[in-house]
Amino acid sequence: MSDLPKAVRIHEEGPREGFQIERASIATADKVRFIEALAETGVPQIDCISYVNPERVPGMRDAEAVAAAIRRRPGVRYTGLWLNTRGLERALRAPLDLVGAIRVTASETFSLKNTGMTIEQTFAEQRRWLAIYREHGIATEWGYVMTAFGCNFEREVPIAQVLRMVAGLLDLANEHGIGLKGVYLADTVGHGTPLSMERRIGAVRERWPDLRLGLHLHDTRGTGMANAYAALRLGVDQFDSSCAGLGGCPFAGHKGAAGNICTEDLVYMCHEMGIATGIDLAKLAACAQMAETIVGHPLPGKVMRSGAAAAAGSQH
Amino acid sequence: MSDLPKAVRIHEEGPREGFQIERASIATADKVRFIEALAETGVPQIDCISYVNPERVPGMRDAEAVAAAIRRRPGVRYTGLWLNTRGLERALRAPLDLVGAIRVTASETFSLKNTGMTIEQTFAEQRRWLAIYREHGIATEWGYVMTAFGCNFEREVPIAQVLRMVAGLLDLANEHGIGLKGVYLADTVGHGTPLSMERRIGAVRERWPDLRLGLHLHDTRGTGMANAYAALRLGVDQFDSSCAGLGGCPFAGHKGAAGNICTEDLVYMCHEMGIATGIDLAKLAACAQMAETIVGHPLPGKVMRSGAAAAAGSQH
Predict the structure, then answer these.
(1) Across the interface, which of B219, B230, B256 has its CB nearest the CB of A307?
(2) Sign of the C-alpha dihedral, residues A28, A31, A37, A40?
(3) Would you give the end-to-end CA distance of chain A in angstroms?
(4) What distance in Å separates residue B202's CA from the closest CA in chain A?
(5) What are the sequence ranges of the domains in chain B?
(6) Does B287 participate in catalysis according to the annotation?
(7) Given this structure, which CATH class describes domain B9-315?
(8) Do A223 and B300 touch (CB under 8 A)?
(9) What distance in Å separates residue B76's CA from the closest CA in chain A?
(10) Could you give the CA distance from residue A83 to residue B221 in angstroms, rounded to a whole number?
């Protein structure tokens, strides 16, 4: 009936995606407390901070303080995001895990508005990053195709364009002798539907049958979990998600930018369908409740409110 | 790849499901204004009110006033819900459409807690209802299996039990010479997952290949839209949903009871996958914004906030 994976790996994006867009100032201690609680749930990787311009993203002005304060739990990776060499320099001084990535945007307009570069220019930029990572001994793990399912400016992003982006990332990696873990298709502004998931994942699979795929999904139009299910059916086993549904893309160009799909809702759905995540759902639901208390307003996650998290969590 | 229907019929449940659980008192005029705006979107049927005990459900104490005030648009059906003969008597005096239904609950415990009757007793009760409907010339259209995907007390509801409920409803209808439009499987407290949708819908289809199925889905654990997609893939073309995600089941026995899946998010997903709904998405998103203003707090719908509703709606 479908090709559901036996297990999925989930990267927690809540702290970075969430705290960078909150209007209220979040105390550094609260961020640290949340990250430390997340680390107790069994999530293998937590994206904690962005090394971005604090003028532009004030919520991340304490990035270094957060990084320094986290009591790290063995076996969990704590990552941060940088978008330029100044950000990388800060990351190199911080005590978190350094994971390299190469990123291109499938929509030319979105690329220009979000990064100020054409797609061609971003490829040249990624080549430069690969050299920098090699220089610093940073492993490059995943390639990312942003806006792989459409964007607010161009709306539809053709499948052929997505394939060109994937091919470009793989060529770049080959050129540097790097075996990527795989390629993420990112629904950066939440334009995807289950059908567009099937078509794009199907097209990539047809061309690169052995390439591992990851999905970064935003729930901007309510299709996030349906999209995740469509991908699970096709065997996708790597997802980004955000505890409590924290977050949203501050650069997405419209006020409706919603957060990633909600980690505990995704974990619930996976466990109930017999897909292992390695995550303790009850602990994760408690983290989601903590996140809501920290940001001081309701967050979109459902399982944290539904009261069945403990029962469900105990089964897997 | 799948058996997506060309078109779906959506019954709007927002006014009834929503206003009956809101804590704040909603003005009758606001309820009427919302229902009239919904009727302009192209939805074929709107469930407006419950004829329930106003002591128990104060939000419905103005049911008659709402029914009397609606300026009805031709081609739209305006329905109300009754649960006992006192409710039916009120419905018979009100100027709304009368649609008969038979309802049983697959979980014995939920049936007892929610209706005070065993499953066997509810079947006897439904037999009595069919006689009453015939007496009053009310057509009985759909059978409903409540908690078809599990409940909070028994958790798992076996597939064989769901099949028994469907068989019982069909036998009852046959006994009275009624050709039901079909049978609704209701995920009354939001326990379903895409996999349990596939299994239960598949089992019913296998036994009754020509039986039309409807789905009533609650998004209690975040799986609502994924469940809808799983059902669409199997060709299900009849859904209940709730504008803005209004509502929730006040009898569900836990505080986390969430509303139905959100109508405009469902419509967005359908339109983007080439499935017609006959609904104007931009108008519906405006209704959702109105609902949020009326209830005075955020509602879970996404498309009403995402800013792409107009563009998406204009395509279908």
Answers:
(1) B256
(2) negative
(3) 23
(4) 10
(5) 9-315
(6) no
(7) alpha beta
(8) no
(9) 26
(10) 35
